[in-house]
Design goal:
single chain, 170 residues, alpha+beta, 5-stranded mixed beta sheet, two-stranded antiparallel ribbon, 5 helices, 27% helix, globular, binds magnesium ion
């Protein structure tokens, strides 16, 4: 096995990026997490489908590639993004990072949600993220935390997501 070494500093040619997102929970919205639809009384509010997982992952990829953030690429005031599926945002981030020679190496995600209990849904999200990033499932991990019934997460007013991605050259 060989390791690519960058020309500067002799470091492995890898980049790490972090993403974070929060959306409010409202009635009459669908709950979409990581591209998976969940049956729940409320969903996340937003200009697009408000998928906090895909938004955080998109931002992590853009960050690792030095490409700014999701708002730079997809302004929420742009009518073209109204009701958009967030898989579109992720695909563009992957494409742009790929143009710079980067591809995902692994992904770790934390979803902060008081309800619903995600349970087996975590694995469905993981498998879908792995598919979208063209990674083996064991290179993607999805964790879930409640808000311990305090704060905006704990009162189930909102959900958040954090993502960390590693990009490798090639
Ligand atoms: Mg968002």
């Amino acid at each position: 096995m060989t390791t690519n070494i960058s020309s500067a500093g002799g470091l492995p040619d890898i980049r790490v990026g972090i993403g974070h997102d929060t959306h409010r929970l409202e009635i009459q919205r669908n709950l979409i997490l990581g591209g998976i639809a969940f049956d729940h009384a409320r969903g996340l509010a937003g200009h697009s489908d408000a998928d906090i997982v895909l938004h955080a992952v998109t931002d992590a990829i853009l960050g690792a590639a030095g490409l700014g953030d999701i708002g730079d690429w997809f302004p929420d005031g742009d009518p073209a993004n109204f009701g958009a599926e967030s898989t579109k945002f992720l695909a563009v981030a992957l494409e742009q990072a790929g143009k710079l020679g980067w591809r995902p190496g692994n992904l770790d995600v934390i979803i902060f949600a008081q309800e619903p209990k995600l349970g087996p849904g975590k694995l469905a999200i993981r498998d879908n993220l792995a598919r979208l990033l063209c990674l083996e499932s064991d290179r993607v991990n999805v964790k879930a935390k409640t808000g311990e019934r305090v704060g905006h997460i704990g009162r189930a007013e909102a959900m958040s997501c954090q993502a960390v991605v590693l990009l490798v050259r090639g």
